[in-house]
Design brief:
Largest sheet: 8 strands, mixed
Strand order of the largest sheet: 1-2-4-3-5-6-7-8
Order of helices and strands: HEEEHEHEHEHHHHHEHEHH
Oligomer: single chain
Helix content: 40-55%
Radius of gyration: 17 Å
CATH architecture: 3-Layer(aba) Sandwich
Number of helices: 12
CATH superfamily: Alpha/Beta hydrolase fold, catalytic domain
Number of domains: 1
Strand content: 15-25%
Distance between the termini: 40 Å
Length: about 280
């Protein structure tokens, strides 16, 4: 498999300290670092289970061609000791809403990937008039039981893992999609994901293990874009269809390449779909 030119260019400056405008939001329960790109209408980008802002930075740069993109660090990302104070999914949703208020955004577009999409969707159900639109990638109506999810849960929960173990990092190949992936790509993604403490990843994983959105999806009162790649092992076609069936106003896109981390593999393709969707929102 050949790396896309977009990914290669983006990855070269992935950790650049001057990438984007950096700031800190002083929220009730933690100080959330954030980064901002572009100068268009505001879009809040919610990162996934691991990797934080840096993993979504290539995507943010593509989105910044149209939006003023604001990505923030989730609770626990920069301080694993935050786990000493118990918090759940509802608390992290409150963090998102408080961040939007702190920033002074009235009705921004919101885009969540993977675990970040779970938070954004939960927020849209609890606060149906706070967003202009919602885009999701790698999110279904429920958390599905299966081999990949079971292994991920078992490993993250019970075994301390070395961040540079080649065998363990092959798990990230599954997240990028079936079939062989370049070692450069796998190593880069794994290195960034391991910047998130394993205990934090485990905690977030446990928060979604029994999640079922289906009974409450009719509470979402805004246009929603759902995206899933054909090789996403965490979101089956049936799961995505169930999500779309219960959403009152939904546009569904199947991404031609990539897996659960399609936003990493093809950031330009994902960004183009979000931009196209946003332009059609009234």
């Amino acid at each position: 498999m050949k790396l896309s030119p977009t990914w290669v260019r983006s990855s070269q400056s992935l950790f650049a300290p001057d990438d984007g405008r950096v700031g800190h939001a002083y929220l009730t329960n933690y100080t959330a670092a954030f980064r901002e790109w572009g100068n268009g209408p505001p879009l809040v980008l919610v990162p996934g289970l691991a990797g934080g802002i840096d993993l979504v930075a290539p995507l943010a740069r593509q989105l910044a061609k149209h939006f003023r993109v604001i990505a923030y660090q989730l609770r626990g990302e920069d301080d694993c000791f935050a786990l000493r104070r118990r918090f759940g999914l509802r608390d992290m949703v409150a963090d998102l809403i408080e961040f939007i208020d702190w920033y002074g955004l009235e009705q921004p577009d919101v885009f969540g990937v993977s675990f970040g999409g779970v938070l954004a969707l939960e927020a849209a159900m609890r606060h149906p008039h706070r967003f202009r639109s919602l885009s999701l990638q790698g999110v279904g109506a429920r958390f599905e039981s299966g081999l990949v999810k079971s292994v991920a849960s078992l490993v993250l929960s019970d075994y301390p893992l070395p961040a540079r173990n080649a065998f363990v990092n092959q798990f990230f190949q599954l997240l990028l999609g079936r079939g062989p992936q370049p070692s450069e790509l796998i190593d880069s993604v794994a290195r960034q994901c391991w910047q998130t403490d394993q205990a934090v990843m485990t905690h977030r994983f446990r928060l979604v293990r029994r999640l079922n959105f289906a009974p409450r999806l009719n509470r979402v009162r805004i246009p929603v874009l759902t995206m899933a790649a054909d090789r996403d092992l965490f979101v089956s076609e049936g799961n995505l269809k169930e999500l779309c069936r219960h959403l009152p106003d939904v546009t569904s896109i199947r991404l031609p390449r990539g897996g659960h981390l399609a936003f990493v593999l093809e950031p330009q393709c994902v960004a183009d779909e979000v931009i196209r969707f946003s332009e059609n929102v009234i």
